[in-house]
Specification:
Blueprint lengths: L2 H6 L4 H4 L3 H9 L2 H21 L7 H16 L6 E3 L3 E3 L10 H11 L7 E2 L4 E2 L4 H11 L3 E5 L2 H13 L3 E5 L5 E2 L3 E2 H8 L2 E5 L7 H7 L4 E7 L15 H11 L3 E6 L17 H6 L4 E5 L10 E5 L1 H9 L1 H5 L4 H13 L3 H7 L1 H7 L2 H19 L3 E13 L8 E10 L4 H10 L3 E3 L1 E3 L2 E4 L8 H13 L4
Helix pairs in contact: 4-5, 6-15, 7-15, 8-9, 16-17, 18-20
Amino acid sequence: MNRQERLRQLPKVDDLLRNPTVLELIDEYPRPLVLDALREAIDVWRARLLSDEDAVYDEASLLDDAQRRAVLKAQRSLRRVINATGIIVHTNLGRSVLSERATAAVAEVAGGYSTLEYDVASGERGSRHVHCEELLCKLTGAEAAIAVNNNAAAVMLALAALARGKEAIVSRGQLVEIGGSFRIPDIMRESGATMVEVGTTNKTHLKDYEAALTENTGVMLKVHSSNFRVVGFTKEVGLDELVPLGAAHGVPVFEDQGSGVLVDVRQWGLPHEPSVGESIAAGADLVSCSGDKLLGGPQAGILVGRTHIIRRLKAHPMARALRLDKMTLAALEVTLRTYIDPEIATTEIPTLRMLCTPQAEIRARAKALADAIVARLGDAAAVDVADDVARAGGGALPMADIPSAVVRVESGAVSAVELERKLRLGEPSVVARIKDGRVLFDPRTLLPADEATIVDRLVAALDGAE
Ligand SMILES: *Cc1c(COP(=O)(O)O)cnc(C)c1O
């Protein structure tokens, strides 16, 4: 066949629309989406027929390709995945998982009208700030509070309100970068504050701050070194020293606490992570943190502190640009309410529950998962349980090894890299780790019913592999 003859074999989209397979696709997916998939599949065949003299058109293969394309086009981009990594606050996988009650509250206000800015008692306009402010004050001991879009926004708002056109003093040991685009010097510049660096990378003394104070100092900023530690010959100035200095000079002390810890994590054998309440008790005038790290709520930036400062933040034009939506507010309010009884918080808030589950319980869950895998896979894979280490993630508790356990799977027929890829590309996607040529599943970050899904997905991934 010459080129022209080969190309003439190609069907028109209209011809394909009479094909039963295509009609089934149109039943299942939006028609425009199926048409796009068919056009793409035809284009692929046209290119093949043009480039390869021996190519023979095959309609079944074109329809297969079109079906695959339709399925991919119909798949939501933002969708659930199973986190088997043992990294609890996994930033790429959406950080904290909301509690069931928080999730239900989000659905309720999203699917209906709400009291977002409406005061039911008076029938008049209300403020969206009221939903979380009292709770935040109660849980941290602060006088006032405001929540914004995320902690980066919180720091930006605080610096803009307290130090635009003024100086902001910060230790050289705290000029951190967190998660790529949050860098203290950049946020400083964008907020309009002039950064005044004091001390050195490893040591900063109170006298360094003292010497830097001027008429034009707007704030002294302290940044919690969330995702790294400086060890050895080091000195940082604590709030115990910084607060009296600020008070003597009328300069507010602002601490970016980062992780949003509201309880004492030492009770679960973890290293001390200063809580927001501890910073307030130590006299910080303003403290910021994330809502979706160790706090275990939705993405949000929380600012707690003195009434006159919070009032300035609320009145700042940027506050409107950074404000929270009703769904986030609903999730944050319910999450904070859960903390009223810390015991309930540790059982209901998934991030806290995952943090505090004892290793023995994780081992037992790993054993049960391994047994379930063996029951279905037989000897298609080598499966065992081993102790391993989980991580808090999200730049929190960076030095903490959380004793955990994992199920290790090794298939004779499929490499670990290939098995991990198959699990990741399936629906739902299962995200697992690879170590020493084996695929690892840590039950610590699994949610109820995830285990059964993992077993099904493993069977599907290894099906016909031998
Ligand atoms: C995580 C973190 C941030 C950024 O918070 P986001 O909520 O991700 O915007 C800022 N400062 C510190 C100390 C952090 O740990």
